[in-house]
Design a protein that fits this description.
By secondary structure, this protein is α+β, with helices and mostly antiparallel strands. It is about 15% helix and about 30% strand. It has a 6-stranded antiparallel β-barrel. It has a 3-stranded antiparallel sheet with strand order 3-9-8. A hairpin with a 5-residue loop joins strand 6 and strand 7.
Length: about 190
């Protein structure tokens, strides 16, 4: 069994209290609260890292989204792959921080076909998990540049306390599989 690097796991409990006002303490508290409130057990949870600075969208993303019928600021329903509504546990899927994250768009209402997949990156922030999506992949194999951010079920940026659970796998957490994305002009 491999042990994840110490930088990716929550700190072990010591007899002295730790400062929790920084990003790592806040996300650790977010997941620890879930763990304690739900009586969960599981592998250590990744710590928060500073969110990336604001950034420009990929080249031609804004123009491409407009041409595809994706209106800036308009929420689109999306799901992380692997979740179901069958049980409470199956409503949460494991995710890792970093690139390689995908979501499936539901009923796009645009020129993009249903089941188009957006790909991008997750960032574990101080109080929320944020996502930036930079490509849309259609079922017929076409890829388009996009500029979208992750929204929770209530259209708030990122996923917070109610949408996060500890995970059994090192370096991952579990989040609610149902959410959304919003096209933007710039990543803030």
């Amino acid at each position: 069994v491999k042990t994840p690097p110490k930088a990716l796991t929550s700190p072990q409990r010591t007899s002295q209290p730790k400062e929790t006002s920084g990003p790592a303490g806040k996300v650790g508290g977010l997941v620890l609260t879930c763990t304690l409130a739900a009586g969960c057990t599981g592998a250590p949870v990744p710590l928060a890292r500073p969110l990336p600075p604001p950034a420009a969208c990929p080249p031609r993303a804004v123009e491409t989204m407009k041409a595809l019928g994706l209106r800036l600021g308009e929420r689109r329903s999306a799901e992380f792959p692997g979740g179901t509504l069958e049980t409470l546990e199956s409503r949460y899927v494991p995710v890792r921080e970093g690139p390689g994250t995908t979501m499936i768009l539901d009923e796009t209402g645009t020129t993009l076909p249903d089941d188009t997949v957006v790909s991008g990156e997750l960032f574990f922030g101080a109080e929320r998990i944020h996502g930036r999506f930079t490509q849309a992949h259609t079922p017929d194999g076409k890829t388009y540049p996009v500029c979208m951010v992750l929204l929770d079920r209530n259209s708030r940026l990122g996923f917070g306390r109610d949408d996060v659970r500890p995970s059994e796998s090192p370096g991952t957490i579990r989040i609610a599989f149902v959410g959304g994305v919003k096209p933007v002009e710039r990543f803030e």
